[in-house]
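Problem 12. The chain below contains 524 residues. Write out its predicted structure in token notation.
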Amino acid sequence: MRQNLVAVDVGTASARAGIFDASGRLLARATHPIIMQRPRENHAEHDSGDIWNAVCTAVKAALADAGILPQSIGAIGFDATCSLVIRDHEGEPVSVSVTGEDRFDTIVWLDHRAIKEADRLTGSGHRVLDFAGNSVSPEMQMPKLMWLKNHLPESWARMSFAFDLADFLTWKATGSARRSNCTQTAKWNFLAQENPGWQADYLAIAGLEDLKARAGLPETTVMPGGAIGPLSAQAAGELGLDTGCQVAAGMIDAYAGALGALGGCLSDDVGKHVALIAGTSSCLVAMSEQPMPGHSLWGPYWQAVLPGHWLVEGGQSATGALLDHIVRMHAAGGEPDTALHARIVTRVTELRAVEGASFAERLHVLPDFHGNRSPHADPHAVGVISGLTLDTSFDSLCRLYWRTAVAIALGARHVLDAMQCFGYDVETLHVTGGHVKNPLLMELYADVTGKRIVVPATADAVLLGTAMTAATAGGVHQSLADAGAAMYPGNAEISGNPALAPAYERDYQRFLAMYRHRQELESL
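Solution.
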């Protein structure tokens, strides 16, 4: 019986593979780095061949550590960042880079080269924007494709396939160019609830009338939990698997994390629960049976994760990355590795114990150092720090770190407040990702948001969510809800301190005032 599953997660810096059994138990995990080049400001590029090699290396290593046979694997699932991969008619790489190197054929999700193109689409007022938070982000694929056509016409002329990275991985695995409903609705302005899903007048506004033919885009998509097909013989050999293994439709990484985090409540009133996938950036994902659009909330996307449900996403463009940046930029900082973060957290705890509520009380941060996804939907937004002195000591770094962490939690509350204004009745926040390892952030999420905080008992909800889609695609479980119920590992809860609510309410009002003051400064 093929009861084991492989889940692959491709992030910004590495590819990870996990081996799971049918109950959701992680048998083994392996990681392999991937390269990224940044030839210009706001440009970030991957080599998709390097990504595939990293995937194969990680899968084979995880299989070896698990000590199981390929014949026990029922299915493999892939999730990835919403990066854009370009290939020619022979399946070979096509450059997306100003360097002209073909191997750099992938525009990374965080690349902001297409801000002007995104602004143009936002200004169009087209009705597809009703299902994109009334704005288009430069992190989405349409503006990136516009940039490619306008700035690298030779690459555009050579292009025969344009893939979201998760779809590229399923193509490499199967040879099939079928696309995931998750990726197409969330990042390509595909309206899955309509027929046709591609809106010809919108493509014309973008100057991409030839996109469907040039990118090899199909008219239909494969739902999450559906199968793209079996592994090809070539891919099976490269991954160390066999052709009896099914390949699940790909997932956006944050949405796979939402599935893993919310797996235990998919059959309950899932609309009262929000998943916070918090790492380099942060995504807050909610689902509902009725569409509830809202400005700056990406979506609502029809069946992007769960059948019969709409999904919306609020986002913070830089959270973990912002703490890293603060550590790097401060005179007393350095390379923000795990040890340095831990040293800062320890010292912050000591200083708070001594100074109490007065600790860093005059420091205030707006965390929009890489724009604002939600609730302002402004990729041009910049960060603000108020309250700096000439102090360059390690303790001054700790003060700034703490107040940056406070700002990140205030930003999460800002997104949650926007969700509630648009009709989402949020009671519980399910937190997963790298922030779970930072005790300051976890304390702040509880105290600042006032929500019930749940932490799934898994080292990696993203891999678990992807394994749930593989379990469904491979017939190990009958539906995503069944897979969620069977594979969810339980959770822990973190309680907030109600006594701190007045102080954080003051901080929140100052946070909102800083937005008003920034706007006032920029309007002068």
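Discussion. The radius of gyration is 22 Å. Students who got a different answer should revisit the alignment rule from Section 12.3.
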